[in-house]
Each structure stands twice: as structure tokens, then as C-alpha cells.
Structure to design on (145 residues):
């Protein structure tokens, strides 16, 4: 991740998802365990990439996670919820970089950057993003006017 400060608002992100935290997500110190932060990022990625109203992966392909960076800024606590923001950071030849942030009570508790790669379901090898998908992703990445 770069050294810029955590985002100030969930509104900085294209896709928003809310996850309910469970008591089972806590550790002996009473805060949410680090692994749950990664699960929350997965929830946001899946909501973005697998939205039935806007499927992104062409038939016969799917996105796989190739890299995950996760920076912790504050603890999360139970009971409560976490708001997950996801946006496109970069569109590559066969990959997409997603930027994410987790907010609890409007406070940024973590930021994440992940790289997902479009792969052929049969060969399991990376494939180039089709031109049409690249254009869709570029539109989604563009800042709102």
C-alpha cells in the first residue's frame, strides 16, 4: 500500500456492502481477529466481481485472487457491523487491482489492495480481459462526476 492516510469515507468507494460481525469473530482480547478482516475484504470483492445484476467474468472464465495486501488501522469490536467499500484501482491486461476499505462506526479500520486475474476455467491460465470487459471496468473505475 502507499503511504497515504486511510480514506475518510465509505463514499470514496463504488460498491458498498455491510457485514454483521459475530461473537465467534472475536479473540481473547475482545476484538475482531485479523483473519476476519481478510474475510470482509473477500465479501466486498465477491460483491463487486460476482454481482448477478452486472456479471463481469465472461462465460468459461472466472477471477482468482493473486495478491492481497491488508493494512490494519484500528481494532474492530463486537457487537456490530463493518461497512466494506470496494473500487477499481487499476485495470491491466488480464488483471484488475481493487482498492478496499473497512469502516466500523464510520471510522476506517483497515485498507486493502488486491489483484484478481481473469482465468480460463478449463486451463486455469490467465487470459486477456476482453475489450468489452476492459471498457466496462474502465467506466467503473472512472471517478463520478
Amino acid at each position: 500500500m502507499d503511504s497515504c492516510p486511510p480514506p475518510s469515507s465509505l463514499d470514496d468507494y463504488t460498491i458498498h456492502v455491510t457485514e454483521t460481525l459475530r461473537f465467534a469473530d472475536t479473540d481473547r482480547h475482545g476484538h475482531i481477529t485479523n483473519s476476519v478482516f481478510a474475510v470482509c475484504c473477500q465479501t466486498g470483492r465477491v460483491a463487486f466481481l460476482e454481482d448477478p445484476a452486472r456479471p463481469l467474468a465472461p462465460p468459461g472464465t472466472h477471477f482468482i485472487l493473486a495478491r492481497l495486501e491488508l493494512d490494519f488501522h484500528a481494532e474492530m469490536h463486537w457487537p456490530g457491523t463493518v461497512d466494506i467499500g470496494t473500487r477499481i484501482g487499476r485495470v491491466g491486461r488480464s488483471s484488475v487491482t481493487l482498492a478496499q476499505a473497512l469502516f466500523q462506526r464510520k471510522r476506517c479500520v483497515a485498507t486493502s489492495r488486491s489483484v484478481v486475474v481473469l482465468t480460463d476455467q478449463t486451463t486455469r491460465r490467465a487470459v486477456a480481459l476482453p475489450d468489452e470487459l476492459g471498457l466496462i471496468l474502465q467506466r467503473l473505475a472512472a471517478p463520478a462526476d
Remarks:
- Residues 25 and 40 are 11 Å apart (CA to CA).
